[in-house]
Every structure is written in C-alpha cells, then in structure tokens.
Amino acid sequence: MSEKKLLILNQQQIQQKLDRIAYQILEDNFDEEEILIAGILPRGNHIAGRLKTILDGIAPFKSRLLTIELEKQSSTLQANINFDIQECSNKVVILVDDVLNSGKTLAYGFGVFLDVPLKKLRTAVLIDRNHKSFPVTTDFAGVALSTVIKEHVDVVLDEDGEEDAVYLR
C-alpha cells in the first residue's frame, strides 16, 4: 500500500520562495559588507547554498557559506562546523534549515554561536510548521504550514531522479 503524499511546493514555487527570502535578507542587511549564511546539514545546507547564489547576484555585500552538522538526537549540543567560530565575531549570521518543526534543531544551531559576539543572528526556513516545543521563531520563512503533529513534511532537494518539491504525508 503506497503512502499518500500531497504536493505543497513544486520546483518553481520553491525557487520563488527562495528568491523572496533572499530579497528579505538583502533588505535586512543592505548596509553590511559581508554576511555569513550557516546551513544546517543536510537540506538546510542545500537551501543556504541556493540563497548564497541568489544573494551573490543581487546584493552589494559578500556572502559566505558555513556548514553546521548537528547531532539532532543528542540531549546536549554536539556540532561539527567547517569554520573557525571566531570568524563570526561582530558579523551577521543567517542560520538556515529546511523545516522548522519543534525548534530543537534551530535552538541547537543557536548554541553554536553562543560564545561569540554577533552583530545579528537571523533564521531562515523553507517551511515553518508551527509545532514549536522550543521558544524559536523564524525571521524568514517560505511558507507557514499548519499541520497536525502526525503529519510529516518531506523536502526533496538535489536528489537523484527527483525534481525539487515539498510534500506533506
């Protein structure tokens, strides 16, 4: 028996949402010389890379892509990063993930930057599900989606043989 899934965003709609988020980031940081875009692996990093590409084409500032790998099942913060955390000092950081559900992943993402004085920390997600267990909100969201807790959002990006899409199942 196949599981039913409902298409929420197709490839074109995902691109439109990412374009809009990139313009919002530009407006929020127009006077900056450089911003850091920190993507949470796996799909948050794909979205961060796409946002960086868009911003490189429209923004007067430089943007740099950072990667964060979190141990999401751990009860304590465990993260691997591909940058020196001190490089973030007094800079704007945009923390990016694919779906904001409980808020735990973004809360752990915030934890990576707790010991560094940032100029600004913002969050961007493609889908905000509104099921927060943590006091986390997002600054830039593609779609706010009201779902029941049993439902699952699948974000398909850069996967072999499948077109970019967001499904609810």
Automatic annotation (TrEMBL):
<keyword id="KW-0328">Glycosyltransferase</keyword>
<dbReference type="InterPro" id="IPR050137">
    <property type="entry name" value="PyrR_bifunctional"/>
</dbReference>
<dbReference type="Pfam" id="PF00156">
    <property type="entry name" value="Pribosyltran"/>
</dbReference>
<protein>
    <submittedName>
        <fullName>Pyrimidine operon attenuation protein / uracil phosphoribosyltransferase</fullName>
    </submittedName>
</protein>
<dbReference type="InterPro" id="IPR000836">
    <property type="entry name" value="PRTase_dom"/>
</dbReference>
<feature type="domain" description="Phosphoribosyltransferase">
    <location>
        <begin position="8"/>
        <end position="159"/>
    </location>
</feature>
<dbReference type="GO" id="GO:0016757">
    <property type="term" value="F:glycosyltransferase activity"/>
</dbReference>
<keyword id="KW-0808">Transferase</keyword>
<dbReference type="InterPro" id="IPR029057">
    <property type="entry name" value="PRTase-like"/>
</dbReference>
